[in-house]
Design brief:
Elements (H helix, E strand, L loop, with lengths): L1 E4 L2 E4 L8 H8 L18 E4 L2 E4 L12 E3 L12 H8 L9 H17 L18 H7 L10 H13 L4
Length: 168
């Protein structure tokens, strides 16, 4: 039994009560995923499991058995930042940077949701799915990721650039 984290297999912890967040941070030293509220309310701990964004503080590590987990450490490829990371720099999308890893993971998984046609609360016609990318749609889909330092507008600008530029 193993978890593929950023392309490397890791054994499951012996204790089935270990959260995925604790496995990443405390046992594997992957500290990019942040501990925020530890209650699933802030999104700082967001990672991607098999293409779906999840809150690692509320996910047991054993639940990821056999899955592919992507953290912020796995976003850059061949020494190049992910296009969203570059857009966040360009749009000053982080000040303190604490929420940034969760914001990035959430936005990348959100782009996949949009491609699949998954509706959101602001989608006018649920049967038809989302009709294009709007700032309102981005804000709604990212509402589970809180920014406390005031970089929210830059984050939305960067996500909008990534989505309209066709990069994900």
């Amino acid at each position: 039994m193993a978890i593929d984290i950023n392309g490397t297999d890791y054994p499951l912890p012996d204790d089935p009560r270990v959260s995925l967040l604790d496995l990443l941070r405390e046992r594997l030293g992957l500290t990019g995923t942040k501990l925020g509220c530890n209650q699933g309310g802030c999104g700082a701990c967001t990672v991607i499991i098999d293409g779906v964004r999840v809150l690692s503080c509320l996910t047991l590590a054993v639940q990821a058995d056999g899955c592919k987990v992507q953290t912020i450490e796995g976003m850059a490829a061949d020494g190049h930042l992910h296009p969203l990371q570059e857009a966040l720099i360009e749009h000053d999308g982080f000040q303190c940077g604490y929420c940034t890893p969760g914001q990035i993971c959430s936005a990348i998984a959100m782009a996949a949701e949009l491609k699949r046609g998954d509706p959101s609360y602001v989608t006018p016609d649920l049967a038809a799915g989302p009709n294009g990318i709007t700032r309102q749609e981005i804000r709604e889909r990212m509402s589970g990721n809180l920014c406390r330092c005031g970089a929210h507008n830059g984050i939305v600008d960067a996500i909008e650039e990534m989505l309209t530029g066709g990069v994900a």
